[in-house]
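Lecture notes, continued. The same structure-token format from the folding unit now serves as the input rather than the output. Read the line below as a description of shape only.
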């Protein structure tokens, strides 16, 4: 069984007893990993990563929007709507994605594509503090901006599936440490319909679809089930989302990805605790609909020795 088949079976709830392995390591540790292994790609090959998280492609908004922000001009929903979005259908913008797919498909990896969500994406032009205020101040205009973004993301996701991507990974942070950043009612009214459009389109095209949302999302987890997501990242234990709850209530609804917490565990130099926690999580989740992965990007305070210690153990437990 190759990696793509393993991940596919795991997401479907048919895990054969071997845990898929991945990790978000390049963003902060790329140079140090390359110094140790020759390249990040060599690190991924050494630990036989089963997945590839692919970034790139067209940007939804024109450069004029970021230029306004750099000049200190507030970008309101009205201002954003006055600019047309870039086309997601210019296939020349997908050249980098095609090249990355070739590399990872040659290694039989399960490939998933970073795909713009709704709230997180618009934090870019608005700024998160202004955006939260706009939810109350400009709900009508925000609905229009959200709907426009949802259609763009839907079209982008369908394009990458046609190129050979296995899964669209919708990145849309909603959670703070103990609750959502907005009310569940507002989520249901403003954000749910946009995600439903994207999820239904991806699944109708035969692809998997996953959600990334940091923090505590327990107030809308039932809604995530309703949306039809196949996988959720990260199921964040450090934000109050216990694995017991997942196993008791949600294990038959979707797969989860995570288990290596960068907020509380990886990168703090406590090797004994790191070993105990990795073994504890494997004891709970091995054989379940679980992909062992970092909960987010490994932070720069993590040493290469600690990263290797963690992945040496992860691979041993995953393959054993």
């Amino acid at each position: 069984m190759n990696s793509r088949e393993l991940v596919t079976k795991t997401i479907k709830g048919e895990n054969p007893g071997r845990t898929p392995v991945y990790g978000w390591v390049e963003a902060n540790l790329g140079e140090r990993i390359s110094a140790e292994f020759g390249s990040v790609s060599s690190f991924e090959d050494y630990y036989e990563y089963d997945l590839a998280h692919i970034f790139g492609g067209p940007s939804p908004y024109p450069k004029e929007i970021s230029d306004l922000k750099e000049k200190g001009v507030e970008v309101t929903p009205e201002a954003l709507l006055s600019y047309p979005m870039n086309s997601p259908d210019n296939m020349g913008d997908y050249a980098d994605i095609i090249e990355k797919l070739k590399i990872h498909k040659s290694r039989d990896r399960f490939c998933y594509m970073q795909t713009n969500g709704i709230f997180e994406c618009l934090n870019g032009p608005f700024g998160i503090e202004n955006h939260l205020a706009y939810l109350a101040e400009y709900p009508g205009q925000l609905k229009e901006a959200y709907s426009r973004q949802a259609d763009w993301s839907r079209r982008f996701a369908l394009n990458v599936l046609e190129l050979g991507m296995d899964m669209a990974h919708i990145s849309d942070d909603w959670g703070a440490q103990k609750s959502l950043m907005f009310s569940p009612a507002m989520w249901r009214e403003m954000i749910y319909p946009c995600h439903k459009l994207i999820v239904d389109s991806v699944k109708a095209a035969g692809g998997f679809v996953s959600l990334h949302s940091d923090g505590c999302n327990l107030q809308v987890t039932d809604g995530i089930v309703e949306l039809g997501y196949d996988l959720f990242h990260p199921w964040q234990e450090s934000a109050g989302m216990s694995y017991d709850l997942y196993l008791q209530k949600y294990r038959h609804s979707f797969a989860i990805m995570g288990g290596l917490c960068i907020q509380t565990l990886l990168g703090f130099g406590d090797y004994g605790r790191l070993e105990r926690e990795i073994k504890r999580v494997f004891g709970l989740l091995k054989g379940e609909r679980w992909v062992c992965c970092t909960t987010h990007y490994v932070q720069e305070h993590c040493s290469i020795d600690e990263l290797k210690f963690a992945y040496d153990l992860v691979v041993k437990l995953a393959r054993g």
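Point for the exam: The beta strands are 51-54, 110-116, 167-171, 208-212, 231-233, 255-260, 290-294.
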